[in-house]
Amino acid sequence: MSKGWNLLERRKEFFFRCLKFFPGFLFFLIFGAVTPAFSEDVYEINGRIIKIINNKSSHICALDNYPMYAIESYDKSAVMLSGRGYVGKNQLHTCALGQVVHVSLIPKGVGILSDINISKNIYVALDFVTVQPVMYLATVAHIGTKKNLVSMKGAYIPGKKASRSAQNAFVSDGAAGSSIISPDGRYVAPNGKVRCGEDAYPGVWDIVENKRIIVDGESCSALFSPKRVR
Fold first, then answer.
1. Helices (DSSP H) in the chain: which residue ranges?
2. 159, 172, 194, 201: least surrounded by Cβ within 10 Å?
3. Helix-, strand-, coil-residue percentages of the chain, each rounded to 5
4. Would residue 35 count as lying in a domain?
């Protein structure tokens, strides 16, 4: 009786020990190792050569124009290389030895390219307006054109007096990556700050409806979620 009882106790102890490790084991089965399926790319530039590095490999591409930097667009569809230049990330990942990758350019006269969404055919450029403080106006346009798709305060409107334009300008660092286009291409935060409150300026713009979005913080953030890709 004693031996049978001890055997039963040992089996129970083993069972509860295994149970303690079960959640971690289940997590591993579902999610796998902690290494992400898609690693972040890092870029190095040297003349017209750009090196693409991730945790699995690295390779180089030759460009047909000199890059000043290499900054990914918000949706990671492109890499911005200068005030007007950009390339699609797929071009960099598929370039072959000896092949020269073409650097596309946004039109002249719209300002500095601050974000681009290639799949939705939309880009944002910031045009410098005043020095103290440094302020900008935004152009949101289809790729290859310079016609602004929006006309609310903070947008560049051709023909408007400089003094009036300065009143509507907003503070930004004006660099590549300082604006955000939503993954579905419908919304833009021209100064890169996803804020949809009444007092937010310039706030978040609905490109289709040509209006500012006024919603709570959680709903505002959701507009720029990768899940909104359509």
1. 2-31, 89-94, 162-168, 217-222
2. 159
3. 25, 30, 50
4. no
Residues 6+ apart with CB under 8 A from 56: 39
52 in the same domain as 14: no
Cβ contacts of residue 135 below 8 Å, gap of 6+?
129, 166, 169, 170, 171, 172
Q: What tens digit of pLDDT does each residue of 100-118 get?
A: 999 999 999 999 999 999 9
In terms of DSSP H, where are the helices of 95-189?
162-168
* 37 belongs to a structural domain: no
Q: Which of 113, 109, 50 is nearest to 86 (CA)?
A: 113
Q: Are residues 139 and 163 in the same domain?
A: yes
Based on the fold, state whether residues 100 and 125 are members of the same structural domain. no
Residue 4 CB coordination number (10 Å): 8
Looking at residue 227, what DSSP letter applies?
G
In angstroms, rounded to a whole number, what is the distance separating the alpha carbons of residues 113 and 125? 4
Domain count, the chain: 3
> Is there a domain that residue 14 lies in?
yes
Q: What is the pTM of this model?
A: 0.80
Q: How far apart are CA 125 and CA 109, in angstroms?
A: 10
One-letter amino acid of 116: I
pLDDT > 90: percent of the chain: 70
- Whether 36 maps to a domain, the answer reads no
Chain centroid, CA 69 distance in Å: 16
pLDDT for position 27? 34
Its domain, for residue 199, covers 112-228
